[in-house]
Specification:
NAD(P)_epim/dehydratase; 3-stranded mixed beta sheet; alpha/beta; about 15% strand; 12 helices; binds nicotinamide-adenine-dinucleotide; Rossmann fold; about 350 residues; binds threonine; 8-stranded parallel beta sheet; NAD(P)-bd_dom_sf
């Protein structure tokens, strides 16, 4: 286990060196920690740093198993006083600010999306600035619009998203970089592709269809896909996402040449995922007619992303490809959700 022993310094815009942390293990607070990424990220962080050092917070109520796994506090990301109190009371070093409303849900409730994704971020950044914390807040491939370049979209390109979600995430990247330049805040962000995991159901995104396809296959139900059969999107299995995120969080700041990095796994279309699933079991599928909200969004996003900078600067390297992920998802979904039937082989 790698320990958090380095004494690191942050340079503010005024040139002063500020002491960041010299503790053995960082004390970490996660907002939106009951969501898809927080659920798996908190498990791996607790294994590395100790359960008591990872504080999960969310606006939702925690289940008994979450309460048994380690510290949990109710926290609405829009209540600045609450977040700051938790940071002070628990001597927090890093905030992982995960609470957000994603693409499809954002188009349904754009004002709530702006409130949470913009005001929640601003509050978290201010707490990080005031208390000299490292702050990680994820971005997404949704920052790209159709003019960003479809294939192997680079870190530095045109950012003209069409969704309110993407617009709030461009702001996140820019505001975080501003806090870093102006006040030396150790802001870090990753542009994730669609994340696929078994432990939770995804919440309101364009890429959710992929997780649902596995559940429908196991439940022997017909899936009506909102995204066209041949629409490719960048995706990543959760183990790669959380392992890469931890590597990025632990990277010495001097290695990072930017605040925000593309992080890519592999790309597939619904039809390719269908074929991967059908190597194991039957899945009956139909496709929504016309252009659904999810299809419109998917078509505006890249087909693939270039993550050369993440690979070169802090050693990012994914391990899972499509068929590896399919195999693991079929084991993991029934394990995490006992009500879902185990795989019925063809
Ligand atoms: N999952 C993906 O495919 C993906 C891809 C790219 C980027 N991201 C980003 O990663 C982060 C985490 O994503 P996720 O998939 O875990 O999201 P999620 O929707 O699964 O979870 C979000 C969590 O935030 C909580 N929440 C909602 N409103 C809140 C509030 N006011 N205060 C506190 N908590 C609140 C929800 O209860 C939920 O547990 C988000 O910033 C998202 O934009 C996710
Ligand atoms: C890509 C991502 O940010 C999210 N899964 C969405 O589809 O909205």
């Amino acid at each position: 286990m790698r320990s958090f022993t380095q004494t690191s310094f942050l340079r503010s815009s005024a040139g002063a060196l500020r002491f960041a942390s010299a503790k053995k293990n960082p004390k970490i607070l996660i907002t939106g920690g009951l969501g898809q990424i927080g659920t798996d990220l908190s498990i791996i962080l607790r294994k590395k740093y100790g359960a008591e050092n990872v504080i999960v917070t969310d606006i939702n109520k925690a289940s008994d198993s979450v309460l048994q796994a380690g510290p949990f506090f109710h926290c609405n990301s829009l209540e600045s006083g609450r977040l700051e109190q938790l940071v002070v009371d628990n001597n927090v070093d890093w905030i992982l600010h995960l609470s957000a409303i994603m693409s499809v849900l954002g188009e349904k409730i754009p004002h709530q999306c702006m409130d949470l994704n913009i005001d929640g971020l601003r509050i978290a950044l201010e707490v990080a600035r005031k208390h000299n914390l490292r702050i990680f807040a994820p971005s997404t491939m949704a920052v790209f619009g159709a003019d960003a370049g479809k294939v192997m979209t680079k870190d530095d390109t045109i950012l003209n998203p069409t969704t309110i979600y993407g617009i709030t995430k461009v702001l996140l990247e820019q505001l975080g970089a501003y806090y870093n330049r102006k006040w030396g805040v150790d802001f870090r962000s990753i542009r994730y592709p669609g994340i696929i995991s078994a432990a939770t159901l995804p919440g309101g995104g364009t890429t959710d269809y992929a997780v649902h396809m596995y559940h429908y296959a196991l439940n022997n139900q017909t899936f009506n896909c909102p995204v066209h059969a041949n629409e490719p999107l960048p995706m990543m299995y959760i183990d790669d996402a959380v392992n890469g995120t931890v590597k990025f969080l632990e990277a010495d700041r001097s290695l990072l040449k930017r605040c925000t990095y593309n992080m890519a796994g592999f790309s597939f279309t619904p039809d390719e995922l269908h074929k991967s699933i059908e190597k194991h079991t039957k899945l009956s599928m139909t496709y929504e007619e016309g252009t659904s909200v999810a299809q419109g969004i998917a078509h505006s996003w890249p087909d693939s992303m270039d993550d050369t900078n993440a690979r070169n600067d802090w050693g990012w390297k994914p391990e899972f490809l499509l068929d590896d992920m399919t195999k693991v998802m079929f084991d993991e979904i029934p394990r995490c959700h006992p009500a879902v039937p185990k795989l019925q082989k063809k």
